[in-house]
Amino acid sequence: MSDHETTRALAVRDLDVWASGPRGDVAIATGIELDVRPGEAIAIVGESGSGKSLSTRAVLDLLPEGVRATGSLRYGERDLSALAPRARRRLRGRELALVMQDPFTMLNPVERVGAQIVEALRDERGRRPSRAARRAEAVRRLAEVGIADPAVADRYPFELSGGMRQRVAIAAAIAEGPRVLVADEPTTALDVTTQRQILELLGELRRTHEMALVLITHDLSVAFSVCDRVYVMYAGALLETAPSRELRDRPRHPYTHGLLLAEPPADRRVERLAGIPGSVPSPGTRPDGCPFAPRCPWAAPACREGTLPPLRETAPGHGTRCLRIDEIATELGHGGDRPGVTADAASRASRATLVTVEGVRKTFAGRRGHGGTTALDGVDLSVREGESVGLVGESGSGKTTLARIVVGLEEATDGRAEVGGVALVGRTTRADREALRDTVQMAFQDPYSSLNPARTVGATLREAVRLAGGERADEERAVGELLERVGLPAQYAQRRPSALSGGERQRAAIARALARRPRLLVCDEVVSALDVSVQAQILNLLRDLQRELDLALLFITHDLAVVRQVTDRVYVLRRGVVVETGATASVLDAPAHAYTRELIASIPGGRSLEGSTRA
Amino acid sequence: MSVPDAKAAVTARDGRRSRSRSRARRTGMPVSVALSAVALAAAILCAIAPGLLAPQDPALIDPAGGLQTASGAHLLGTDALGRDVLSRVVAGARSALVGPLILTSATVVISTFLALLAGYLGGWFDAVVSRVADTIYALPALIVTIVIVGVFGGGWWLAIGVLVVFNTPTALRILRAAVIERRDLPYVEAARTIGVSRWSIMVRHLLPNLEPMIVTCFFLGFTYGMVELSALSFLGLGVPPGSPDWGRMLAENRVQVAQNPWAAVAPGIAIVATVLSANILGGWIYERLERRKRER
């Protein structure tokens, strides 16, 4: 954009990233332009396959084997692409630092965290300071990232929680006072409450250390809550860039607009979530012209031809890569203010109870009886016919264990669990298990491992149909009906899971669960591994299924906004105990328990959004 | 439930995989792998139709023409009894390949079966199978085999049988670990939830996903078996005297290595080349299968 500004920490122009594959080079990202001013926080937002991670890796010279980049990279006055590898390596860490996503693998497991933080520490003469000095420095830096206990420096990574590890990693990254800190999905693997703390820490360090922050994320609300400006990437192209507030209130690109709409609001239930149809094209299968055109409701024939549309500046600092900005500007203004609706939970209050869980405890034995853990500690839960019940909690709250007990994958240590008239604690007969399977089925979190990679979708579904007692002659028809029910074309029966996108796999997995016509579908974090635009499609599907099939849902999630959209009643779990329960709307609007309040306060942008809802 | 069956089934399911992609992969075959494939193909051809390639009858004794060096008539010379070395190397391919093939097939079938049961069911069955396997693993295979085969009189089938027992634990460990790794994956749990029987989960859900590991165990078992069987016949155990076998030829001809070095060196080269080729090819196939599994 505007080249007259000379004070840039980082300037990227015409960056192309290529991966060499068996069929020649495939473009990962093309024509990327980024500007980072000193001390500024920018976000690069995109769904999976947008090329956001590899583009920033190219800037850091950390591309994996087989991937290369061309383009102009300037750091301050220096041209990075002209520097020798050795010089760029020296720049990394000292000037440009990186924090990665997974706090569980990025620290060396056999080294104490203190040592890892001060690993590169040298004095003025280039020598390593004494052991005591190094430790003192490590403790000081841990304090800087909010770890006040000096004993943490002597611990190993596996002794720390995910949030603590992320803090340690940040301490190590900023150890040499970099001018630019690149954080690649730093909070994606963390719980919401921890996420908020880490985001606050990053914002604070940015001010105290006067460094620029480049935050890579898939979550627009995370970007808005921390960053000054946002770049939106899609399928390897930069589609829009604007200051956070401007982008949130006046998106000019249909994709950004769609993303904002797809994000489920946490403060109200909407009639229907606006998912973006289709899925992100993978590198190598991207269309000509605008990469978003196939999914864009405003696409004109011209959008599907030629090369990438130019990045046009519509307002100062607001660039949009869309051919039809002016024509669709007024239309994009609509649709943002969706009225809230109330869930019709009252009509189900008198219906029969499907699941009764009373005082259920579950302990997992440690090795040789040592170190056993209690996952559930006296939990009560009930689900009625046709009702949608949410189970909310952070990792370790026991919500998945409870779901697995309801489905029969796990047996409770103690207490009473009854599903569809079958008692699940103690001995069960074959007939009991069959009855249970006809009552309750489950959809799993990870769409990439919940379908057998060696079998076609059709084979998986046929098996399920057969087990449901279907006639062999009717199998094909039943499989077709199941696919149609979840919104997949019938030809998908011939495909293997590898040919399906994440959302399509989740649909297929739901179809399998529906084959036995269960009364209750247990959904264990079914949307947490999906992109926002696809997440909305699946949530809509589940709501439709609940209504059309009179299906009860037990919906497990960590995401309060999602729970709001799908459930009538909610249970809040914390460390194996239900701390609060009630109608979803009343629990979220007027939380009684401190933990629920903390969860709600941790929703990124949750509170800050309130004041700026568009009129 | 033989291994080739499972493989064929999986390949058939792969039918609709894009042709251009598999072609690209085929052209991506490294030279070492191509050479290995050619060498193995040659060995297999020799085993199927020795008459096609052997210039003479390998058993034809010519007392007058013993220990000739390489010449036009005998490309690799003759051994002490005047038999053509080249013809005997060609004829030896059959016993060299068939033995390890039977050995490794039996080993892989047994260990796959046990690994599925032990890995998926766990409990006492797993404990018993694993402890027995560990015990066998701790014994020196070749020495015990020599003793057993020696005491019971050097039968070829006995040698194969004993080696199957000794080679099973290696494959069993690899495959059992692979089963355990997949046992708790969501697609297996999903199958349990919709009511698929345990047997069906093992055969239809787990087995096809073990394919890369099974192929690896097959090739590993083949090369191990070939070295072991050659060592046994080198010691005069297993194959009957007089039959053209690479290990036996190595033993018979090593004393006359000064007169016609080829008589001992050629079978040695044949053993090394075949083992190496099988190893390289097996490694490459494994990587290809794994890569295919990873591609989403």
UniProtKB/TrEMBL annotation, chain A:
Pfam families in alphabetical order: ABC_tran, oligo_HPY
Residue ranges of every copy of the ABC transporter domain listed in the record: 12-260, 355-600
GO CC terms: plasma membrane
Top-level division of the source organism's lineage: Bacteria
Topology relative to the membrane: Peripheral membrane protein
Keywords in alphabetical order: ATP-binding, Cell membrane, Membrane, Nucleotide-binding, Transport
Annotated compartments: Cell membrane
BP term (GO), one: peptide transport
Stated family: Belongs to the ABC transporter superfamily.
Designated name of the protein: Peptide/nickel transport system ATP-binding protein
UniProt source species: Conexibacter arvalis
TrEMBL record, chain B:
Superkingdom per UniProt: Bacteria
Keyword Transmembrane helix listed: yes
Every ABC transmembrane type-1 domain range: 97-282
Keyword annotations from UniProtKB, A to Z: Cell membrane, Membrane, Transmembrane, Transmembrane helix, Transport
Main localization (coarse): membrane
Record-level GO cellular component terms: plasma membrane
Membrane topology according to the record: Multi-pass membrane protein
Descriptive protein name: ABC-type dipeptide/oligopeptide/nickel transport system permease subunit
Source species of the chain: Conexibacter arvalis
